[in-house]
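Deliverable D4.2, example record:
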Amino acid sequence: MSRYRAGIRQHGTHRELAGGRKPGETLRVGASGLDAIIVPGSRPAAYLDHAVTLARAANCSLVILCSHYLHACEVKEYLDARSFRGAIIIELSPEYSHPLFCFPGLLEIKDDLPSACGNHITDLSMKRNVGLVLAKMMGWRRIFFLDDDIRDIAYPDLQRTVGMLSSFSAAGMWVTDFPDNSIVCHANRETGGSQDVFVSGAALAVDCESDIGFFPDIYNEDWLFFFDAASKGELGNSCLKATQLYYYPFANAGRAAWQEFGDLIAEGLYALLHLGLEVEQATSRYWARFIEARRNFLEDTLSRVSEAPADMQVEIAASLYSALKCLSGITPDLCARYVKAWREDLKHWKRRWADIHEMPSVGAAVAALGLVAIRSDGANRILHPQDRITLAPVPGPVTIPQSDTVREMAVSMNAWRPPPLDVKRDTLPLEVVIPFEVPRWWHRVQRRISPLIPSGFVGERHVVSAPTSAAASRARGEPESSVPTVSLS
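Output generated by the structure prediction step:
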C-alpha cells in the first residue's frame, strides 16, 4: 500500500472509469428496446412532464414511485390530463419495508455513522430498489432511471444511451448544467478548482439481466450501485448531456455535513479504481490515508474561498467548515467496517435477486412487494375550460343568493313594498337616536328615502321627525331634544 500512497487522493474527474464512444464513433439511433422509465418522484406532479414526454416517445412503460410532495392521486389526475395511459403509480409510505430490501450489515452499523448522516431523511435508495425488483418481476430487461428534476433529454439521446446496454451493464449521461455534484464539489468548482461530473442515477440506463447491485441508504448510493460495473469496465457513458433543475447548493451548510460520509466512501472507492486496486484493499490503513487526502482537499478549497463570487463566499465557507467538522468524527475503522458490511449485504442481495421470479401481472408484482398500484387509464370526463363555463344547467331546485352585488341590492330595494295597512302591529316602534344636531346631509337622506315610501302612505309605521330647537319643544310641552327621531315598526 505504501507504494500507492502518493496516488491516494481525491480526483477532480472519474471520466476514465466509464467507457464511452471511441473518437469518431457514432452510436446508432434505432429501436432502443427500452422497457420502462422509472421515476423516483418527490416533487409535485407537474415535474413529471419530461418523463411523460420521453415515455410516450419511447412507447415504453412508465413507473412513478411517489413520496414526500408527490401523491399517487395527483399523479393520476396529471397523467389523465396528459392523456397518458398505462402508467404504474405507486405511493411509498415512510414506514415501508420488505424482506427483499433488508440489509442487516448496513443496518447494524447505521448507529455508528456520524450524527449528521441523519440530518436529512430520504427514501431515494428505497424507491430505486423497488424499481429494480419491479422490473425483474415484470420481465423487463432494459430500464431507465430518471429523476424528476432532469430535463432536456432528446429522445435520440435516450435511444443512444439505452443502446449502450448491448455492451455495458449500465450506462449514463452527463448532467452538466446544472452540474450534478455534491456541495463540496460545487465549492471546489466555484473557488477555481478542477471539477468534473460523473455518471449518476439521475439519468441511468440499466440492464436487469446483468450482475447488478443495490442502492444503499447513503449519499452517493448510485456510485455504490454501479461500482462493480465500473471496476469491470462495464459502466458506460454516452457523453450526451442532460440538464438538472437549478438549486443554490450553499443555502444549508448542514447539507454538506449530511453528504460528507457518503461522499468520502464513494470518492475513496473510486480512487481505488484509479490505482488499479480491488475493493478488498480498502482497509483501515487505506482509509486513514484517504481521509487525510480528503481533509487536504477540503482545506485547500477553503483557502480559495476568496476566489468565489463575493455573494457566495460566506456560505461556501460555512458548508466547507460543516463538512470538515463531520469528517473529523469519521475514523478509518468506521469506513473499513462500512465497506465490509456493504459487500456482505451485496452477496445476500445477489442471491435474493436470483430468486426473484417473473409475475403474471403488474398487480401481482406490486402485491408481492406489499404495495398498491394505481393505473392511469386516460381521461374520463375532463372538461375544456370554456365548457366548464357554458355547461348547460341541470333542472332542479335553485338557491338564489340574497344580494351579491350593489346593483342587485338596489333592485331588491326597488321591488320592496310595505305590508298592508290592515295588518296589526305586534311590536313596539324602534327608536333610533342620532346623537348630534341635524347636519346638512340630513335633508339629503330624506330625499333618498322618500321614494321608498309609496305616495299617499301615511301612518305610524314610518314616522320621521326632524330635530327641533329646545324652545319649540318647551312651547309644545315636549322634552328638549336636539336630535331627530326615526320610529320604525
